[in-house]
Amino acid sequence: MEEKFNRLIFIPVAAVLFLMIGYQYVCPADSNACYFRTDDQGLFQRHSSGFEALYPEPDGDEDLPSKITSRFNFTERDLDRHVDFHIRGEDVMVFLHIQKTGGTTFGRHLVKNIQLEQPCDCMPGQRKCTCHRPGKAESWLFSRFSTGWSCGLHADWTELTSCVPVVMNKRDKKSAPKSKRNFYYITMLRDPVSRYLSEWKHVQRGATWKTALHMCDGRPPTQDELPACYSGEDWTGVPLADFMNCPSNLANNRQVRMLADLSLVGCYNMSSMSELERGRVLLASAKANLRNMAFYGLTEFQRKTQYLFERTFGLRFIRAFTQINSTRAASVGISEKVRWRIEGLNALDVELYEYAKELFLRRYQYNRQQQHQEERLRRRQERQHRQRMHRTYLAELWRLGGGGGGEEEDEEKEEKMAEEVATTEDYSSQVVRW
Predict the structure, then answer these.
(1) Residue 269 Rama label (left phi>0; alpha psi -120 to 50; beta)
(2) 347 vs 341: CA distance, rounded Å
(3) Domain boundaries in the chain?
(4) What segments bear the compositional bias annotation Polar residues (predicted)?
(5) Separation of alpha carbons 337 and 241, rounded Å
(6) What is the model's pLDDT at position 12?
(7) Integer Cα distance of 280 and 269 in angstroms
(8) Cα–Cα–Cα angle for 236, 241, 247, nearest 5°?
(9) Are 352 and 256 in contact (CB under 8 A)?
(10) Contacting residues for 22 by C-beta, under 8 A, at least 6 apart
C-alpha cells in the first residue's frame, strides 16, 4: 500500500520538476530568450546588445541602419568574407595605402595592435617594424610600416599587383615559380569630399609625393601625360580654388584611380579614349577590385572596420579603434557651391564610395547575423552536452538508489525518467529537495 502511494506521489512531483527544470533550460536567468515584447523586431535587433557592449559606437560612428537602402545587387559571395590566413605559411597581407584615408593610423594598428604569436618588433625612433612569421625570418605584411615603400610611394593597385610578388620573393629569397603564395589586398576608403579637403590642406603645408612612381605597363607617365600643377619645389599655401583648377591634379578621383587597373585605359594616356568612356571603365574596374579584395574599411566607421577585419582574418586587436572627428578637413568651412564643385571633380569617387559604403554595411550586417547563428549553435551544443551528461548521471543515480525489480524493470524506469525529466546543472540539489 505504501509503495503504491509513493508511486502516486512520484508522478505529479516528477511533472512539476520537469516543467521547472525545462523552463530553466529554455529561459535561463541571464538570458533574454523569454523576454516578451510587443514589437516585431527580428533576430538582428534582439541580439545586438551584447555586441554593442564590446564594440560601442562613438557619436561620430553611425549606428547600422536596420534597413539599408539598396542601390546595388550584392550576392552572398560578395558579403561572405573569410580568409584562412596562414601566417606561418606563405600568405602575405598587402596594404594599399591611399592618401588621406586614415591609412597611417590603420597601418600602425597592423604592426602594433594585433595579438600575434610573434608580435612585430617596433624599435623606438624607427619608422619600420619587423613583422616576421613565427619561427621564420620572413615578413607576412607588406606595408609602409613593415617593408617600407618597396613598390614606390603610395603605390596603387596597378603597381602593387605587378610589383609585390617580385619584391616579396626577392626579400625571402624564394623562387617565384615554386613559391605558392596568397596575396590578400586590403585598403581604407574615406568620404570623397573630406578626403579631398584633407589632401588640399596637406599639400598646402608642403606635401608633394614627388617620389611616387606611377608605374603602369612597365613605365612611368611622361611629362605630357601627367603635367605638374605647380612650377616651384612644392605647392605650399595653395588656395583651394587653385587646387581645384588644375586639370591634372591627382587628388581628383584619387580613390578610383588607385583601385582601378590603369592598363585598361592606356595608363595615363588621356587620348586613348574619351573622358566619359575612360571614367566608366575606371569606375567599373575599381568597384570590381574593391569587391574582390580580402578586406577594406571605411574611415568613418572605425569600430565596424575593426570588427570586419577581425572576422575576415581571424585575428584580434589588442585595443579598440577610436573614432576621431576633429580632423583638419572637418575644420574647413566651405559653401554649398564649393562642395558641389568638389563633388563634381570627384564624381567617380562619390559613386565608388556610395557603392563601398553599402557593401561595407551589408557585410557588417551579414557578419553580425552569422555571429549570432554561431553563438546560438554553440549554446545549443553545450546544452545538449549538459543534458546527455545529466541523463547519464540520473540513470546512475536511479540505478544506485532505486531498489530492486530486476534489470529489465530498472532499464524501463531509467528510460522513462530520462524522457520525462530534462535536467540542468543544479539537478543534484533538486534531487535532494525531492
Answers:
(1) beta
(2) 10
(3) 82-171+178-325+332-376
(4) 425-434
(5) 12
(6) 60
(7) 16
(8) 90
(9) yes
(10) 422
pLDDT over threshold 50, residue 421: no
CA distance 284 to 288: 6
Cβ-based neighbour number of residue 206 at 10 Å: 11
Instruction: Name the active-site residue from 154, 202, 214, 390.
Output: 154
154 as an active site residue: the answer is yes
How far, in Å, CA of 390 to CA of 149, rounded? 61
HEC string for the chain = CHHHHHHHHHHHHHHHHHHHHHHHHHCCCCCCCCCCCCCCCCHHHHCCHHHHHHCCCCCCCCCCCCCCCCCCCCCHHHHCCCCCCCCCCCCEEEEECCCCCCHHHHHHHHHHCECCCCCCECCCCCCCCECECCCCCCECEECCCCCCCCCCCCCCHHHHHHHHHHHHHHHCCCCCCCCCCCEEEEEEECCHHHHHHHHHHHHHCCCCCCCCCCCECCECCCCCCCCCCCCCCCCCCCCHHHHHHCCCCCCCCHHHHHHCCHHHHCCCCHHHCCHHHHHHHHHHHHHHHHHHCCEEEECCCHHHHHHHHHHHHCCCECCCCCCCCCCCCCCCCCCHHHHHHHHHHCHHHHHHHHHHHHHHHHHHHHHHHHHHHHHHHHHHHHHHHHHHHHHHHHHHHHHHHCCCCHHHHHHHHHHHHHHHCCCCCCHHHHHHHC
Supply the pLDDT for residue 103: 97
**Whether the model pTM is above 0.90:** no
Ramachandran bin of 27, using left for φ above 0, alpha for ψ from -120 to 50, beta for the remaining angles: beta
Antiparallel, parallel or unpaired: β 92-96 and 183-189: parallel
* Cα–Cα dist 295/78, whole Å: 11
> Hey, which CATH number is domain 82-171+178-325+332-376, 1.50.10, 3.40.50, 3.90.220, 1.20.1630?
3.40.50
Question: Which pLDDT tens digit goes with each residue over 96-129?
Answer: 999 999 999 999 999 999 999 999 999 988 889 9
What pLDDT band is residue 19 in, cutting at 50, 70 and 90? low
